[in-house]
Amino acid sequence: SRPRIRRVDLMRSIGNGVNRPIPYKISTGPCRALICHCPIHDEKSPSFRMWSTGSFYCFGCCFAGDWIDLIIHFYQPADTDELLRLARQFIRGCGSDSDQAIFDFMRTSAS
Hints:
Layout: H1 7-17, E1 24-26, E2 34-36, E3 48-50, E4 55-58, E5 64-66, H2 67-75, H3 80-88, H4 98-110
Antiparallel strand pairs: 1-2, 2-3, 3-4, 4-5
Helix pairs in contact: 1-2
C-alpha cells in the first residue's frame, strides 16, 4: 500500500533546507491539495500543488513527481539506506511495515 506522508512536515523541512519558509494552505474540496510557492524557482503566486497521495506538480516550472523525488532533489541521499532514513521522517504512523511500504512505493514509482 502507498505510505501516507506528512506533507506539511516535508515542506517545512524543505523550507529549512533552502533557508526560506514555504508558507502553504490546504485547499478545500475532495483533493485537499497543499498549495504553496514552488521550492524550486522564485515566483510571485503559489503554483506548486501536492496532493494527499504525495504526488506534486508546479504549474510554473512544470517540476512534477512524488514526495520521494522531492527528497532526492533536495537532500541528495548517498544510498538507499539514507533515502529510507529520510523518508521515514515524513511517513504518517510509522509502523513496523512502513519500510516495506516505502520500498514498494519507490519500486512502483521507478517503473
